[in-house]
Amino acid sequence: METSPKKQLSGDLIRIEQLEVDFDGFKAIRGLDFSLQPGELRFLIGPNGAGKTTLLDVLCGKVKPSKGSVRFKTSIDLARHQEHQIAQLGIGRKFQAPSIFVTLSVLENLLLSMRQKRGLLSSLIAKTTAEQRSRIKYYLHMIGLEHKSQDKAGSLSHGEKQWLEIGMLLIQEPELLLLDEPAAGMTDSETEKTGELLHKISDRQTVIVVEHDMDFVRQFAKTVTVMHEGAVLCEGTMDDIQNDDKVAEVYLGRRGERDAEHT
Ligand SMILES: Nc1ncnc2c1ncn2[C@@H]1O[C@H](COP(=O)(O)OP(=O)(O)OP(=O)(O)O)[C@@H](O)[C@H]1O
């Protein structure tokens, strides 16, 4: 089936230059440069207060920069758009707390998330096209909830609720998906499935994941960006990051302590 837009072959999906975010005189982001290619699965890590959430907030339009440029698909200046316009442009954001309708079924939640004119749920169901039904089936399968499509969302486990919410974003077919700690509070097996889901999503879409769980990052990250004090400290594979002295200093424990552990 035709699902999300095909990945572009070249060009940055996101390019941020010299970004600054000022909260009443406190610079949560200061001189941040960041770029992302279409199709990447990028993990964003860093100590508390590094500015990770603020960066996602800028990308989805919740927070406006005080300086710098934030470009989407080269030509779109995200700072000039409101949050709802950015969602329509193709950037989907999932926050930590699920915002599903607990009294509706999994299927109904997905139906309500599809881009279509608002109306009564019953009429949405009646008006669903074959293409939409096939899209729902595709994403139900992807989030592993095919067998629970008629179950009330409120009866799902914590992990399943998170996947449903990811499915509700996916069904809108964003080009870029922003996820804040998607595996937080999950069981080991749910965490594993979430990592696999992220890889499946990145076959077609671009994903940025803010994550604190370093085991999860080690297991599923391809490229990692480390933030510190509102800027990018370093970027690379998990191996690069673990061998970086600056990261060892500020994030993973001081180099001396780490070396001592290995002797
Ligand atoms: N609305 C706000 N007003 C004032 N300061 C803020 C605001 N939002 C965030 N900050 C501050 O900006 C800094 C960066 O916060 P941010 O939440 O982006 O960090 P983070 O890397 O996501 O941290 P954590 O991992 O703890 O969630 C912190 O010092 C925070 O207290």
Automatic annotation (TrEMBL):
Gene3D superfamilies: P-loop containing nucleotide triphosphate hydrolases. One of its GO terms (cellular component) is plasma membrane. Residues 14-254 form the ABC transporter domain. InterPro entries: AAA+_ATPase, ABC_AA/LPS_Transport, ABC_transporter-like_ATP-bd, ABC_transptr_urea_ATP-bd_UrtD, BCA_ABC_TP_C, P-loop_NTPase. Keywords: ATP-binding, Nucleotide-binding, Transport. PROSITE patterns: ABC_TRANSPORTER_2. It comes from the Bacteria. One of its GO terms (molecular function) is ATP hydrolysis activity. PANTHER family: CONSERVED COMPONENT OF ABC TRANSPORTER FOR NATURAL AMINO ACIDS-RELATED (PTHR45772), HIGH-AFFINITY BRANCHED-CHAIN AMINO ACID TRANSPORT ATP-BINDING PROTEIN (PTHR45772:SF8). NCBIfam families: urea_trans_UrtD (TIGR03411). This is Urea ABC transporter ATP-binding protein UrtD. It comes from Paenibacillus piri.
